[in-house]
């Protein structure tokens, strides 16, 4: 192990103990601590203010170059016992910003829509490109639920129409709709960080003049009805929001819902069948896209 390498100490634990272990790693000199899923267990996007960890969580502490990890491992075992797996590994020193950027590539959705990081480009005739960098707000196009919604928007004739993006996150769906020809878009979210991200991304893509953003609440929103509504949230909140989303969608208007596991689709369809004629479920990697038409 070279003295120029960073040192990582990894511990596999439960979500209940993860924060305690993170605190111990910081006390022993960890420069940063991260949490990752130890068993590929899906955790859906939390509500604002809510924090979730995986049932089996790997906690990793990053230690300075040249640190001897053995005394730290011994101390952790003395405190936590031998039943918690832990190990030290080296992390080669390199240009981590470049390595991170190299992970991302342009992604195509439908026939002509692309989501592309700002440091790359798309060279395809008649392509519609949304420039979007990975960030704090949910929705960069890589998740199946976002992909389903983007493919749906690409399949529509949006020319001259208003699109409502309820739970806009990064603004990816609203921005994509505008790039695909929508006249204007409305973005609603209950997270202020999401609205900031949406505004920044819309500005970067040159469509901020056609996007209006609103802080959502449980109360009725005084917005014009839209002929097209998309909502990529979660099954539970979507079912609860049915009266609001129905009220914001014009008669005969189109609806697309995602953020729903396939096994949750029936309960959401039941909620929306009160005001919408729902179509057959479209599935992608265990996630569902629900579409329908406002009665």
Automatic annotation (TrEMBL):
UniProt record, GO biological process: methylation
Places the protein is found: Cytoplasm
SUPFAM superfamilies reported for this sequence: S-adenosyl-L-methionine-dependent methyltransferases
Annotated keywords: Cytoplasm, Methyltransferase, Ribonucleoprotein, Ribosomal protein, S-adenosyl-L-methionine, Transferase
A GO cellular-component term linked to this record: ribosome
Top EC class for this record: transferase
Record flagged with keyword Ribosomal protein: yes
Catalytic activity reported: L-lysyl-[protein] + 3 S-adenosyl-L-methionine = N(6),N(6),N(6)-trimethyl-L-lysyl-[protein] + 3 S-adenosyl-L-homocysteine + 3 H(+)
EC numbers on record: 2.1.1.-
Matching NCBIfam families: prmA
HAMAP family: Methyltr_PrmA
Name of protein: Ribosomal protein L11 methyltransferase
Native organism: Succinivibrio dextrinosolvens DSM 3072
Gene that this polypeptide is encoded by: prmA
